[in-house]
Each structure stands twice: as structure tokens, then as C-alpha cells.
Write a sequence for this structure.
């Protein structure tokens, strides 16, 4: 049996398969379908400083091989998370990673500080795709100074593994990756959703209440793969690949492009067992190619 | 209730009219427990344009035959693909999802369905009848051809029909039917499924008479299990997921569903 263990900074994941924030709830929604503990870990739904109701319905548009969403970070806020949700996560023996969001630097810091105190959560993923209210709504993750500012501020209060999740809605993703690495990120995950739009020709109206939304699913995979490759070449910290991963082959492609681990997102909606099937497929691939350690795949692209 | 992903076999697929199919599914093992009002998420294979699963109400469950039925209206590529399924084909399905209707016992109840909104009402009527309720069923459609399987419902109670062109039952909209126009309207509960405007109008009538009314919503869904938060409806307790906290809601829970819309509506929306 090949070794499946991978390291992301201080985390020793028993395998490289994680689930993406916002697509896996708090894990428990999948208990009926899979053994959640079989995964390397789970990244739970975004947590913000305050309770957020999110955007009005409609929030979803199906697109060719993908979907647009405009959920707007609906969640009950960090205090509710600590008090009511965290205790329910204790049953998972693998890594539970919190996804931290906010609209001000102070907001991110507040959430990170409160989650830092939770023993069972060994890492946070900083979602810097949120609009920076102070800078006029532009996402933190779309400029180097604001990405640096939020990463540095969180780094000061958070002493466990800090993963920064990048937005793909930028011209040069390597620059943002280098900026957050410099600011103290222990690992980088990418990509978050790509900004998109859907129109109903019959009614001439936008499908989403917010007009634009985030694209995910197989439709974004080639873009995500390219970005993971560019970032992995640029930075020294481990990279976690996300974007349209549906099969074991997809996961392996991301690892070959330079990812140390991967996250399964939208695919969970079509098949709640996608994550464990991908894991089984990776094992089968290693066996077939006579590879003894999954870590050999990372950056194994032959040019 | 525990949720399952199953590969069910198509036992039969009966075309009811130009755009409705009754899909009968079964398997070797006993079908899981489910209750009226719950739904299933069906994976549509072989359709170029259908990426996400498609939600359908559980229309009938026949425990003796170990089969279940979905009533499917063809509106797009996904549903048309399902309409083409043949006996022996396999269907990947997630169920049972969502919460069901409040099930009364020994009460007087009215079930109101419009268009394809009758889908969850068959299983509900079947159940309520067995629980000793006196069941009245009011079905509406544009014309006689849209009134599906009215005879099947007669096994459970009295059936009333309204068609917009008057080809069957009373002429007019469901909301204008004499059953609902009755000044002394008195039921212990009204259950309603159909187009949004129709449900709002029926909920308004129910409220005006002080009758509890449950409606079944059909918001677009991505996951069906409460993780994507795409299917929300505004309630007095904030946004709630139709897929887990619904699809059945008491109309009083829903924001903006007040008696002011007691005017009726067309099924043509
Ligand atoms: C809980 C629930 C239960 C349902 N039960 C049934 C049922 O028992 N029988 C049945 O026939 N249908 C039911 N529906 C609606 C059904 O899911 C949609 O008609 C179906 O998803 C359309 O898929 P499609 O690929 O054919 O159409 P698409 O190509 O996706 O869409 C075609 C057209 O249908 C409209 N449409 C798509 N989805 C919906 C929706 N959810 N509600 C209203 N209009 C929609 C679109 O706006 C578009 O105009 C239910 C929906 C929900 C949420
Ligand atoms: C419905 C939905 C909700 C999401 N919510 C979050 C979130 O709260 N935080 C976050 O960092 N990413 C969120 N994402 C982005 C995913 O985690 C992931 O980065 C993206 O969907 C790309 O991967 P995929 O194509 O495999 O889904 C969400 C995606 C979807 C589809
Ligand atoms: S459909 Fe995903 S939460 Fe309801």
C-alpha cells in the first residue's frame, strides 16, 4: 500500500483529499453518505464576525458544466460558531479547518482570534475573496497591499497553520501568492470562484439577485489548474489545489501541477460520495503506476 | 431521517399527456422510509446541458410492490431526458430529502393542487386517508388535459376540479372554485402545492378563515442537503433552506405571504 500522507505546514494529513468551504457544510450533512473521517480533512463553511443573512434569492444559476452562486456568506457569526457548531465538530478525528471571512481587517482578526482558542481546529483558511468594505468593495485578494495587510494582521493573532485562499479574479496570481507568503501564510489554497454572470434571455433579466456571482465546477478546472501551476512555481509554501475537481484524474492533475493536497467542492453536490471516490481513485492510480508515496506526484509535471 | 443514494431501476415510464410522465422506480432491497412532502434529487445522465441533480417530489410509494413514483413535467433538457427513460434503465437518486407535511389524524382537510403541483399530493392524500381524515381534494389546470389522474384521488376522498377553459369541473381558477369561495370555509388544515401565485392566494384564503395552511415550495436547488445555501426562502426567522427546513412550510412562517393576495392567479406563469 502506498503512503498517502501529506504535510501542509504542521498538519499531517492522512491523505491529500480535503473538501472545499461552502460545499461541505459542517461535515455532518454528509455523515449519511460517507465516513467523513476517511478524508484528510474538511474545510467548513465560512465564518464572519457577525451573523449574516446573505443575499436575496435567487442565488444560483446552473451553467455549462458548472454553477454560479451568490450566497453572500450566510452564516450565524463567529460566536455562534464557537458555542454551537464547534462542539458538533469534535466527533471528527481528521483535520477540521475553519474558513475565515470578513469585510474589514479587524473583522478577519476577530474571527481568527476566537478560533485560535479552539483546540480541535488546527488551521484556518483565510478567504480573502470577500469585498473590502473600506477600500470600496474591492476584494482583499485582488490587490497585493490589501492581501498583505489582512494576512499580516491575522498572522499576528493566529499561531497555528494559516492557509490563505486566493481569488482567481486577478491579472497576476503569482504576485498575490508571493505577497501573502511574505506576509506569513503557511500554505496557499486556490482557486475560489471566478466572477461570472447569467442572463435569462426570455425575461431579459439577470438570473442571480446580485447580477454577478461565483463560477465553480468542472467549467473552471483548466483555469484553476493553470493558476495552481503558476503559484506552485512561485512560492515555497505548500499549495492546495481547488477548482472543478470531480475525479481522481482531476486531483492527480492538480498535484502534478504542484499541489500538495486538493479540495473537492461543487462535485459534492452531484455526488456526495465524490471525495471518497476520488481518494480511492488516487490509491488505484498509485498502485497502477507503482508509486509508493503520493508526495511524489506534487510538481511531477513533465515538461 | 437517514438519507440514501441509490441506483433504482425504472419499472415503467408512462406518458400521461403531452408533457407529463409518471416514472415508476424500484429496487431489490426495500425502499427507505419516507414521508409525504419529502423529495428526491435525481441525477440526469446523458444530458449535455444538465450538470446538477434535479429535485422531484415523492409522488407515490407502494410498499407492497416496493416501488415509488415521480410525476415529472417536461420543462427543459433535464426533465425531457427523464421522460425518455425506459423500463430497465437505471436512475441514481438521493432520498428522502427535506421535511414533510404535518400529518393530521381524524381531521377534515383540504388538498389543493395546481398544474404539476399535484405531485406531492397523491402520497399525502393516501397517507391522510389511512389516518382517518376526511379528505377533500381540489385540483386545477388550464384545461381537462392538464387534470392528471383525478380518478386515482377518488379512492381517498371527494375530488373537485377547476379548469380555466371550463373543459372539466368548474370554469375558472382553482382559487375561484366554490369550495374555496365558501363563506363558511372550515377545514382543520389546507395543504397546497402549485405555482407560487396560486399558493399565495390559497394561503390568503386560509388565513382569512383562520385555517392553517401548509405549502410546498420549489426553489431552485444545487445540493438538496442544506450545504450550498442556494435555495433559501425568507421566513420570519430569517433565511431558511427550502431543501432541509422545507420544502413544506406553514404559510405563516413565510415573509410576505399575507391575506392581501386573495385574488387568484393564472397557472400560466
Ligand atoms: C422540492 C422540489 C420538488 C419538485 N417536485 C417536482 C415534481 O414532483 N415534478 C416536477 O415535474 N417538477 C418538480 N420540481 C421542479 C423540477 O425540479 C424542475 O422542473 C426541474 O429541475 C427542471 O429541470 P430541467 O433540466 O428540465 O429544466 P431547466 O432546463 O433547468 O429549466 C427549464 C425551465 O424550467 C424552469 N425551472 C427550472 N427549475 C425549476 C424549479 N425548481 N421550479 C420551477 N421552475 C423551474 C427554468 O426557469 C426554465 O425556465 C420540483 C422542484 C423542487 C425544488
Ligand atoms: C455554493 C458555494 C459556496 C461557497 N462558499 C465558500 C465560502 O464560504 N468560503 C470560501 O472560501 N469558498 C467558498 N466557495 C468556493 C469553494 O470553496 C471553491 O473554492 C470553489 O467552488 C471552486 O472549487 P469547485 O469548482 O471544486 O467547487 C463556495 C462555493 C460554492 C459553489
Ligand atoms: S439546495 Fe443546497 S442548501 Fe438547499
Amino acid at each position: 500500500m502506498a503512503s498517502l500522507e501529506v504535510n501542509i505546514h504542521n498538519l499531517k494529513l492522512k491523505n491529500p483529499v480535503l473538501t472545499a468551504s461552502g460545499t461541505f457544510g459542517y461535515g455532518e450533512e454528509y455523515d449519511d453518505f460517507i465516513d467523513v473521517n476517511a478524508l484528510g480533512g474538511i474545510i467548513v463553511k465560512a465564518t464572519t464576525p457577525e451573523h449574516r443573512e446573505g443575499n436575496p434569492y435567487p442565488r444560483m444559476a446552473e451553467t455549462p458544466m458548472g454553477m454560479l452562486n451568490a450566497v453572500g456568506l450566510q452564516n450565524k457569526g463567529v460566536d455562534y460558531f464557537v458555542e454551537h457548531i464547534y462542539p458538533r465538530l469534535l466527533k471528527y478525528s481528521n483535520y477540521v479547518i475553519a474558513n475565515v471571512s470578513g469585510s474589514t481587517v479587524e473583522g478577519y482578526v476577530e474571527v481568527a482570534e476566537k478560533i485560535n482558542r479552539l483546540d480541535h481546529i488546527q488551521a484556518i483558511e483565510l478567504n480573502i475573496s470577500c469585498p473590502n468594505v473600506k477600500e470600496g468593495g474591492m476584494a482583499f485578494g485582488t490587490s497585493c497591499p490589501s492581501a498583505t495587510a489582512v494576512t499580516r494582521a491575522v498572522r499576528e493573532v493566529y499561531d497555528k497553520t494559516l492557509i490563505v485562499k486566493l481569488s482567481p479574479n486577478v491579472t497576476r496570481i503569482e504576485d498575490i501568492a508571493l505577497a501573502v507568503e511574505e506576509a506569513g501564510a503557511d500554505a496557499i489554497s486556490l482557486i475560489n470562484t471566478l466572477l461570472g454572470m447569467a442572463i435569462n434571455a426570455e425575461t431579459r433579466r439577470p438570473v442571480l439577485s446580485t447580477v454577478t456571482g461565483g463560477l465553480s465546477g468542472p467549467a473552471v478546472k483548466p483555469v484553476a489548474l493553470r493558476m495552481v501551476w503558476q503559484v506552485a512555481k512561485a512560492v515555497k509554501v505548500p499549495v492546495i489545489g481547488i477548482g472543478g475537481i470531480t475525479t481522481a484524474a482531476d486531483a492527480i492533475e492538480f498535484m502534478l501541477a504542484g499541489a500538495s493536497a486538493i479540495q473537492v467542492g461543487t462535485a459534492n453536490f452531484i455526488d456526495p460520495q465524490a471525495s471518497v471516490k476520488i481518494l480511492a481513485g488516487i490509491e488505484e492510480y498509485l498502485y497502477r503506476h507503482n508509486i509508493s508515496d503520493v508526495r511524489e506526484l506534487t510538481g511531477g509535471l513533465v515538461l | 431521517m437517514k438519507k440514501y443514494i441509490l441506483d433504482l431501476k425504472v419499472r415503467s415510464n408512462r406518458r400521461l399527456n403531452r408533457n407529463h410522465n409518471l416514472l415508476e422506480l424500484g429496487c431489490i432491497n426495500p425502499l427507505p422510509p419516507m414521508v409525504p412532502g419529502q423529495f428526491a434529487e435525481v441525477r440526469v445522465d446523458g444530458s449535455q446541458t444538465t450538470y446538477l441533480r434535479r429535485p422531484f417530489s415523492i409522488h407515490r410509494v407502494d410498499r407492497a410492490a416496493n416501488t415509488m413514483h415521480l410525476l415529472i413535467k417536461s420543462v427543459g433538457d433535464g426533465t425531457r431526458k427523464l421522460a425518455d427513460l425506459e423500463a430497465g434503465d437505471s436512475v441514481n437518486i438521493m432520498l428522502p430529502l427535506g421535511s414533510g407535511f404535518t400529518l393530521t389524524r381524524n381531521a377534515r382537510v383540504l388538498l389543493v393542487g395546481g398544474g404539476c403541483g399535484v405531485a406531492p399530493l397523491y402520497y399525502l392524500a393516501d397517507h391522510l386517508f389511512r389516518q382517518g381524515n376526511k379528505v377533500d381534494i381540489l385540483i386545477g389546470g388550464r384545461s381537462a388535459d392538464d387534470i392528471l389522474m383525478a380518478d386515482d384521488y377518488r379512492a381517498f376522498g371527494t375530488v373537485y376540479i377547476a379548469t380555466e377553459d371550463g373543459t372539466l369541473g368548474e370554469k375558472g381558477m382553482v382559487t375561484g372554485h366554490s369550495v374555496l369561495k365558501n363563506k363558511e370555509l372550515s377545514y382543520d388544515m389546507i395543504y397546497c402545492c402549485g405555482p407560487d401565485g396560486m399558493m399565495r392566494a390559497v394561503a390568503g384564503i386560509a388565513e382569512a378563515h383562520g385555517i392553517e395552511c401548509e405549502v410546498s415550495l420549489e426553489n431552485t436547488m444545487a445540493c438538496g442537503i442544506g450545504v450550498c445555501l442556494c435555495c433559501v426562502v425568507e421566513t420570519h426567522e430569517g433565511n431558511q433552506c427550502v431543501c432541509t427546513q422545507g420544502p413544506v412550510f406553514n404559510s405563516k412562517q413565510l415573509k410576505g405571504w399575507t391575506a392581501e393576495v386573495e385574488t387568484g392567479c393564472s397557472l400560466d406563469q
User: Anything to note?
Assistant: Confidence is low (pLDDT under 50) at residues 260-269 of chain B. Chain B touches chain A at residues 2-5, 43, 49-53, 94, 219-234, 238-239 (CB under 8 Å). Residues B 39, 50, 54-57, 71-73, 75-79, 116, 119, 218-221, 247 surround flavin-adenine dinucleotide (ligand 1) (CB under 6 Å).
